[in-house]
Specification:
This protein is an alpha/beta fold. The protein has helices spanning about 5-15, 30-55, 80-90, and strands at about 20, 75, 100-105, 110, 115, 120-125, 130-135, 140-145, 150, 160, 165-170, 170-180, 195-200, 205-215, 220, 225-230, 230-235. The N and C termini lie far apart (about 40 Å).
Length: about 250
């Protein structure tokens, strides 16, 4: 995704804010003040994108990662132990200038949450692959974003599956493709965010341009700023559907 395309997408979102907006903890219809706040957030997001692309150079090489981290030659994510260890080492270091491009090159199971730290700007291409959470991640987030993360699917067939949560967002996240699934049916006494496919926290901005959410419990929960512009979000359950609680299904 080049600068012009990303900014065009952001501007498209900014002009389509009225489609569906969820301000933090809002129960009432969006007020003019709310709209102004989100418009300001979109302006900040555009500025962040400009700043991120001002110097698009990424490290030419990083031990254990194949590729250069550029749009033309992204780092490859294979899911092999050495590859995942190198990825963890990369994100525990100093954030490089500009945007880092990554591509999933084969189906993989993550043994632990993939965290994008604050300061990192990442474009992640799911590339039509299947990504799932390992058994040890039953109570974890598959993706935890504190930086600037754009998720795309260049092949249009990617499926990301987690038990409780696919995304825990505390930064800026743009989703533009892919299918996101959860398999846990939340207990009725649990907070709504315990089992949510996409959870946007108070510090987060989530922009859902395209894609599909297929949630066994909640699809999207928002405590920050969320814009839903396209795609489809479905849930096969509600908070009172847990058979373990002995309650009838909806």
């Amino acid at each position: 995704m080049n600068k012009q395309k990303l900014l065009a997408l952001l501007l498209g979102v900014a002009t389509a804010i009225s489609v569906m907006v969820f301000p933090a903890a809002a129960e009432e219809p969006t007020s003019p003040a709310d709209t102004q706040t989100i418009e300001q957030k979109m302006a900040e997001l555009e500025a962040d994108a400009n700043a991120a692309f001002a110097n698009p150079a990424a490290p030419a090489a990083f031990d254990g990662l194949v590729g250069e981290g550029t749009e033309e030659n992204p780092y490859q994510i294979t899911g092999e132990p050495a590859n995942l260890m190198a990825l963890e080492t990369f994100f525990s270091g100093t954030a490089p200038d500009g945007v880092v491009y990554m591509k999933v090159t084969q189906g993989l199971t993550l043994p632990q949450s993939l965290q994008i730290p604050a300061g990192f700007s990442v474009v992640l291409d799911l590339n039509g692959q299947t990504v799932s959470a390992g058994a040890a991640m039953e109570n974890s987030n598959l993706l935890h974003n504190l930086g600037n993360l754009t998720v795309t699917d260049s092949q249009g067939t990617a499926v990301v599956t987690a038990y409780f949560r696919v995304l825990y967002n505390e930064g800026i996240c743009i989703i533009d493709g892919g299918t996101y699934r959860t398999t846990n049916i939340g207990m009725f006494e649990s907070p709504y965010y315990t089992s949510t496919a996409l959870l946007n926290r108070a510090t987060g901005t989530l922009i859902f341009l395209d894609g599909t959410v297929q949630a066994a419990s909640y699809g999207v929960a928002n405590l920050g700023n969320t814009v839903l512009k396209g795609g489809a979000i479905t849930s096969t359950s509600c908070s009172y559907c847990s058979s373990a609680a002995g309650l009838p299904s909806c």
